[in-house]
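Thread title: Can someone regenerate the structure for this chain?

I was given the following input by a collaborator and told the matching structure tokens would be attached. They weren't. Posting the sequence so someone can regenerate them.
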Amino acid sequence: MTTEPEHAKGASSGAPVETLDAIVIGAGFAGIRALWEFTRSNHRVRAFEAGSDVGGTWYWNRYPGARTDSEAWAYCFTFSRELQDDWQWSERLPGQREVLKYLEHVVERFDLRRHITFDARVEAATFDEKTQLWEVRIAGGERVRCRYLVSATGVLSIPKKPEFPGADHFKGEIYYAPQWPKEPVDLNGKRVAIIGSAATAIQILPVIAKVAGHVSFFQRTPNYVLPGRNYEIGEEHAVDIRRRYPAIAAQTRAHAFGLPMDATGRTYDSVDDMERHRIFERGWEEGGFHFCFNTFDDIMVDQRSNHAASSFIREKIRAIVKDPATAEALCPTYPFFSKRPPSGHFFYEAFNRDNVTLVDISQNGIQEITEKGVRTAAGEHEVDVIIMAIGFDAVTGPLMNIDMRGRGGVSIQEKWRDGPHTHLGIMVDDFPNMFMILGPQAPFGNIPTVIEGVVEWIGDAIARMEREGTATIEPTAEAVHGWTAYLEQIYRMTLLSSGAEVRTWFLGANIPGKPVAVMFHFGGIALYLADIGKERDGGLPGFFTVKKASAAELSQPA
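Best answer:
Regenerated them for you:
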């Protein structure tokens, strides 16, 4: 970690109400974990949360059927054994309400709520080169300054805008899945259109089909939907989970995608056709991501292995869905994992109901929303309710929606106009002391596992700065360039190249006009944690620091 002289600029105008050590943007999993890290090291910290309570993703996404895709015993914090001992999950894949209650429990248990300001959306953040502080502006006018700015805005927090006109003309009700109302929504006996066919829509369909008069499921691109195989956790199982928590935590950090399972050591060529089929059957029945990661280790890099997995799932779809035409329309033709594979809970079975219709819009897209419903190139579908489950401006969207300006006034929008560029997925050059949790170019995988590793790294970096008496840290442009090139190299080693064709949010390809770029470290969480650990233990060679300004320097006119 080299030292360069301070760049002195004029201070920004206005008098901030308060100067803190740290500000955290967001109070979901990432924000809560960051708050705990700062409070245990006695830093003065506040979190600003746009919602009226904690939860982040689990506060906003309260739509019917919302639940995790990862096992409860891995989709949780690991920083406190006492927390693990006093919380008991009720389901393998807990629903939105239970995850939200868990996060509320964490906040209360560690007295973090007093550090959070709710209904407070961060509008802007500007780095002041003279004071070496960030000035943060909250909607409504409040301004606060801090030494360390931490983005905990999440990967999927900015809903995608509809690509078709006419929503204002619709005479019925429109609901946006990521902003589902807190009050009950009555769908009983109504004609409902679900627009979208990814994870959110896949969770919604089987639930509302039980009460709706009819559901039209508008699908542009089919997904490989894996069975969730959810179940209740009994007392004996809960005791076993608590006993094994340390081993589970170690297991998730060693796993490529942060899940509580081990690499199999199997490849496509290591077994014959009959054994390969048995392994796929076992992975399918285990449910969730076990089919991805507990069958063959080369599914994402070997075309034959991937083709075998893809073909197996397509045969399952054809076996489950009774109508052959509907089944075929639900079968993806692109490589497995080009899009994130969701877990379903009787999703394919829902198409066997008399009140569910698949509307294939791959060739006849939606032209407009009319007064009566949804018009495609093939005709109009009259409905009473429209549910928009069209996805998110993922990964970069949350920060790009803040007027964030670093050294020299450069904006994050300018910095990322051709796609995200970071070092370690944690920091950006020209943005001193601005840390990202789940930022662009961090790994894709089990979210809490990534969060824990990144927040620990941030805590270590700040502790090092304070021991050495430095004011700011930021990556070099060379390190940012090297990290981006490294991730592109990893990406090219996988079979994810068809992601742009199927508009995957993995690459930002689901947003018209958004640069298609590698958004994640696709080498897996275990490799990522090793990468950032090597940087930390090696003295942060990809970063430079700026010395603290003296009182005399600060008193100089701009």
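The domain at 2-59+86-158+394-555 is CATH 3.50.50.60 (FAD/NAD(P)-binding domain).
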